[in-house]
Amino acid sequence: MHLRRHPLFQFSWCLLNALLVASAVLLVYGIGWEISTERYLKGFADSVVPLSTAPEQKVEAILTWMNQAPARRNAVDVESLDIRDPQTTLNYQRLLQICGSATNAFVNLASSSGLEARRLLLLNQNNRTLHVVAEVRLAHRWVVIDPAFRAVFRDAQGQPLTRSQLRDPHVFREATQKLKGYPPACTFDRTTQVRLERIPFLGGLLRKILNALLFGWEEWNWSGITERTSMALTLAAALLMGVFLAGRFALSWYGKRRLGVIRVRLREQLMRAAHALFSIPS
Questions:
Q1: CA distance 2 to 106
Q2: pTM of the predicted model over 0.85
Q3: I need a labelling partner for 271 at 20 to 30 A (CA). Which of 109, 157, 174, 250 fits?
Q4: Which residues contact 223 (CB under 8 A, 6 or more apart)?
Q5: pLDDT, one tens digit for every residue, the chain (282 residues)
Q6: Domain ranges in the chain?
Q7: Integer CA distances (angstroms), 8 to 3, 19, 116, 231, 246, in order
Q8: From 1.10.1240, 3.40.50, 1.10.760, 3.10.620, which CATH number describes the 18-231 domain?
Q9: How many other C-beta atoms are found inside a 10 Å radius of the C-beta of residue 219?
């Protein structure tokens, strides 16, 4: 049966194909952007962090650079900047002073220096973000770093602290008393890496689904997605492409089985076109 006898099917088919092509183009663009970002970060990290140093010294080198770096650009309107793009956060002085974007800069530099690093959100009772810090894996422990205050949280003996240790009020006061201006309300009682509640309508449901299907998913390192616009775009494009491919397959099956629509495959169309173009008339 000819495709034109089913205009709704034809429209849906053309729309899906257009969306599939658009997602493929977006995926290629995202991959190129991510490769460019990775190369930029690698070069930047090599200029800041000595190659043959211990992990804790790498952390200190990054914090020292953030504290003593040469003058960066001054942004008139910080809100207009992409604070998830490391090529932006590393180059604006104001962004290196804001906890979220400072953590973005730190996490990306640390990751490009060979460290395992991730962001950590400190939440209030209503699950709203109060402060953003980083965690770095040192000696098999996720220790807490505050890039905005250029500090590693340490106890009285100078040992780096984990978030579980910082939930102790005494340890927390001891670790923050030397951080001038640190807000005492920014405790570690409620923390998360990803605040899904920011997603309208679906955030809470998505968290419940992940909790049911993937035990311990919140402990995974999500910083590659949350701290890089390029990687988030690449992943989103790949997911969309998968959805559109599945939709195209389902629509093709429905058209063939239910409507009796016989489509001429793209390969056959190309072969016919090539035959018509290159064949020699008899």
A1: 59
A2: no
A3: 250
A4: 107, 111, 117, 118, 119, 193
A5: 455 666 787 788 889 989 999 999 999 999 999 999 999 999 999 989 987 789 999 999 999 999 886 666 665 566 777 777 888 888 888 888 889 999 999 999 999 999 999 999 999 988 889 999 999 999 999 999 999 999 999 998 999 999 999 999 999 999 999 899 999 999 999 998 887 777 777 777 888 888 888 888 878 888 888 888 899 899 999 999 999 999 988 988 888 777 766 665 555 555 665 666 566 555
A6: 18-231
A7: 10, 16, 51, 36, 19
A8: 3.10.620
A9: 10
Alpha-carbon span 221 to 230, nearest angstrom: 17
Tokens of 108: 């990306």
Residue 51 token pair: 């190659």
The answer to whether 147 and 95 have CB atoms below 8 angstroms apart is no
- The set of long-range contacts for 143-148, using a CB threshold of 8 Å and a minimum separation of 24, is 144/120, 144/188, 145/59, 145/63, 145/106, 146/99, 146/179, 146/182, 147/63, 147/66, 147/99, 147/102, 147/103, 147/105, 147/106, 148/97, 148/98, 148/99, 148/102, 148/103
Distance CA 39, CA 137 (A): 23
